[in-house]
Each structure stands twice: as C-alpha cells, then as structure tokens.
Amino acid sequence: MLNPNCFNFLTLFISLVSLPSPTISQSSSLTNFLHCLHYGSDPIVSQSIYIASNPAFQTILQARIKNRRFLNPETLKPVAIVVPTRIDHVQGTVICAKDNGLQIRIRSGGHDYEGLSYRSNVTFIILDMSNFRSVDIDVRTETAWVQSGATLGELYYHIANKTNMHGFPSGVCPTVGIGGHFSGGGFGNLMRKYGLSVDNILDIIAVDALGNVHDRASMGEDLFWAIRGGGAASFAVVVSYKIKLVRVPNKVTVFRKGFTLEQGATDLVHKWQQVAPNINEEFFIRVKLEPSFINGNQTVTATFIGFFLGRREKLLPIISKTFPELNLTQQDCHEMRWVETTLFWAGFPIGTPIETLLNRTIWTPLFFKNKSDYVKNVIPKESLNKIWKMTMAMMNRNDINKIRFDLECSPYGGKMNVIPESNTPFPHRKGNLFLIQYAFSWIDEGSNVSFNNIKKLRKLYDGMAPYVSKDPRECFLNYRDLDIGSSPSNETSFDDAKIYGRKYFKDNYTRLTKVKASVDPNNFFKYEQSIPPIK
C-alpha cells in the first residue's frame, strides 16, 4: 500500500467539498497587507496573490490539500494565498505579514499529515512555494540545487535525465514537496547506505523573520543545523537546497513478496527484525503488515519490499545466507535503473514511464490519520500474535474497499548507526531497529466516521506501548501527529512544546529553542508544533 497521502482507490470517485470563508475576509490587516505588497499596482505581485474574491482562490487552496479531513466547513480558510515567483516576493510576504499581524503557513507539497502547512485557527495567509520548483543538476561536482516547491518525483526525474549513476536518499512518494520532506529529515530506501536527506544537504537559501536572504555562510552554522530536520517553518522560509548526489549502480534490484499468517508470516517478521537492521547496508527491506481477507477469512499479510544496490546474482546468495526463510527466487527479483525503482516503491507497475514522476496530481486525496513509533528491541513471537489481533480489529469484512490500514516497518542500521544523534536535529539514529508508520486511510465522509476511525487508531497505538521506545516515546517529524502534544495556533507554550519537542528531537530540542531565540526571538514563525524561543 502507498502512504495514505499518496494512495489512490482506483475504482472510487471522491468529490471535493467546499471550504468556508474566513471569519474576516477583508479585515484591515488584510487590506494593509495587500497595500504593503503593492497589490493592484504591481502586475507581477498581483498575479501571485489570491484572495477569496478571486475565482481561482478555491482551486489554488485545494490543489495541495492532501488530507480530506481538512476539506470541511469547520476548517478556516486563509485570507490570502501568496504563490511567489521571485525571492523578493517571499521577502515581501514575510515583512508585510509580520508588520500587519498576519500568521504565515508555508506550503510546498501540502503533505503535512495534520495539514499545518495550510490551516490555522487564527487569521492567516498561505505562502505557497509551488512555483519554486527548479532542479539544477551538476554531474561533474555530484551536486544539485533544488527549490523547496519541487517534488521528490521531479528531483528524481531530473537526476535521471542527467545520469544513471547517481541518486538521492529521499522518500518513496513522488508528489511530496521537497520543502516539507527535507524539513523533517527525509528518509527512504537509501538511508542505510547514505543516511537521510538532511545528511546530504550542503547549502540552503532561506528568508528569515526580518525578510533577509541568507545562504549557509551568512545564516551561520546554528541556523543551518536547525533547518535540516528541525522543522524549518519554525525558523525561516527555505527557498532552495544544495544537495550532494550519491552514487548508485547502473542497475539495482527490487523485490516484493507477501505471506499470510497461515504461510508463516509470524516467523518471518520475527526473523526480519534481526536481519533487516543488520544486513549489508546496500539492502533496504521494509515489511508492510496489513489486515486482509483471504477466501472470506481474516488474516494479516506481511509483504516484504526490498531494494538492493546491485544485481540479483549478488543479492540472492546474501539473502540465502542471512534470510533463507524468505525463499527469494530469481523470478522475484527485478533489475532496473535507480530512477525506475522510485516508481516501483510508489506502487506503480514495472515499466511505468519515468515521466509519471512529473505528475503532481497522480492520486486523489483521502481522509487519513497516521502515527509513528521506534522499536529498539526485537518483538517476541507471542507479542507479535497480540499485535496481529489488534491489527485485525482495525477493520472487518464490511470495510473492504472502504479503508486501508497497515504498519509500515522500515529498518535502520547501516549508516544510521554511524551518524551522531546531534549531527542534525533528527536524533533517531543508533539503537533503533526499525521505524513504524501506522497508516490509516478511509473514503467515507462525515465527522463521526473520522472520529471513530481515529479512535480505533489511538487504541491500537496505546496497545503498542510495551513494544516501542520509552521516555520519551519517540516520533518522526515527517509523520506529524498532533496527538503527542501541541500548542494553540497563535502562541507556543514552552511547556507544551517540551513534550512534543522531546519526542521528535530528544536532547536536540534544547539547542533548537536556543537557535529559535537567536533568529526569531519574537516567535513570528509559529504553528501548533513549532519550536519556541527558550525562556
């Protein structure tokens, strides 16, 4: 299954609902903001700003809302959407919003799991970075400049257009925006070899709370450190990144193989926990666990999805030695270019044209709620059996084709064990066996449906507590979850922030608050899970 923000129920049509107008659509703050930006007098600026009276406003707003839970009458609209085409538009938006008491929400791809890049409970504007989408590849220096509004798919496509011997360690959903993905750390199936996206960022262009433009040299190493995995929207507006391309073979190998409980899935998952984090770092083997119905009987299916930086003749002997129970055959393994594996991992059929990576609207938005956990010790078989029962309780026979639920388990180890926890704000390094994403999506509308589905997910999450990290129960920022703690939209409670801050960043949280105090002491850049300036 694809991540819920990517997955498309191919046989079902989902219509979008209208959103409400803001309580104050033409307030004095908005009028002054527009005047500050020379709205109406500068044609280029005017074409980049959408207010509620603009016929395109609704289309622009909904184009990058990926979670239908926030396409409802209760979700407040922004008073304006700024879609800049030049960096001075970004600077002006920051300065004018700050001067007129308007909150900014920064959106690149719109995949924030809790919608915090496009919603707030106070009067706000959206700074939509989708026009900042250029990708400039330099094969000679093995680097690239990529703007924050580009998508992962666009990055992958442009790399492949210049070289078959390079790639970049990022996620598997091609429509995810670069800005949000890099901001939270960014991980994918190259991380055991090369680390996270943020471990391969060389420079950043960003606009600070005063409207000044900085690169790495002028912003200083503290801010450069903070916006590589610490939630950049707490500190600045990132415009572009200089990244280090990583080397990949001309051909790599992928596989996908599933087993039900009746076919020995419990033994295989137990063994996977011991193999996947410790196998050669050229491997990345994810296991996806989902309730299913086979011949009318409920079970759990464990699907092993593998990636290997090499040919299958090298892969098979290693798997035969380390994980023979998988019974992997030559027919299970598919060789292809690295760029083609990005489509395979996104769920597309083998042979899908790589131009598909450029399509920003592949999937129809769903209702979804996701959560995350880190596992540090092997879960015993008897505990796995308890997990299967909780997993099967997430759906019944009547839910087929209406909901999707799975536990996506991604192994750590390799390079992740080598990079120190303090190297970037992302702290989840050595000591973790794997990351769990609880991915729950549904198609039925209604607040009661969402309430009941989220309640079921929270119950399972509570039941998983004995098997995952503790003190704190760690979470992954890219899988944002407001259940772990939040502040009101227009203020950041230091005590509240300490709760979610430690879960996302562990001991790096304190340094983040110090950086915040240095670069944005008045807390202009804020949202429900932002970093506050230290008291």
UniProtKB/TrEMBL annotation:
**Keyword field:** Cell wall, Disulfide bond, FAD, Flavoprotein, Glycoprotein, Nucleotide-binding, Oxidoreductase, Secreted, Signal
Compartmental location? Secreted, Cell wall
The record's PROSITE patterns line, in alphabetical order, gives:
FAD_PCMH (PS51387)
Name by which UniProt lists this protein: FAD-binding PCMH-type domain-containing protein
What broad taxonomic lineage does this protein's source fall under?
Answer: Eukaryota, Viridiplantae, Streptophyta, Embryophyta, Tracheophyta
Say which family it is in. Belongs to the oxygen-dependent FAD-linked oxidoreductase family.
Domain (FAD-binding PCMH-type) spans: 74-248
Signal peptide (UniProt feature, chain positions): 1-25
